[in-house]
């Protein structure tokens, strides 16, 4: 049996573009969203996937904080993982950093893994919950 997951296109068809945009944002991610680079940094974060879960790490709610320095455009990211035993724990900060570094205009990138607060499914964007049939 093939299991069908909802993708962003299916969600847009069901609820429309405006509602989908709201649903793409995880409820607990802090970011200076008025910075000119934020939309492109956010898009770069959405390109990184947890290898075991078919949802990007941003919508999974693994990104807790994104601070873009207004003078240098350096980016500091606090993130977590779904569990401390995650098999890519050592690789994930580099994957995130490499993706954000592709954004034109970004300075230095530092990614730190934090465990407090612990991740739970309540930190996921609504789109991630729909994609994983967790609604």
Task: Explain the overall architecture.
- The model has no long low-confidence stretch (mean pLDDT 86).
- The chain has one domain (8-128): 2-Layer Sandwich (GMP Synthetase, Chain A, domain 3), CATH 3.30.300.130.
- Helix 1 (8-15) packs across helix 2.
- The chain is an alpha/beta fold and 135 residues long.
- Helices cover 29% and strands 13% of the residues.
- A four-stranded mixed β-sheet has the order 1-2-3-4, covered by helices on one side.
- It contains five helices and four strands.
- Strand 3, helix 4 (92-101) and strand 4 (109-113) form a beta-alpha-beta unit.
How are the elements arranged and paired?
Elements: H1 8-15, H2 17-23, E1 30-31, H3 38-45, E2 63-68, E3 75-79, H4 92-101, E4 109-113, H5 126-131
Parallel strand pairs: 1-2, 3-4
Antiparallel strand pairs: 2-3
Helix pairs in contact: 1-2
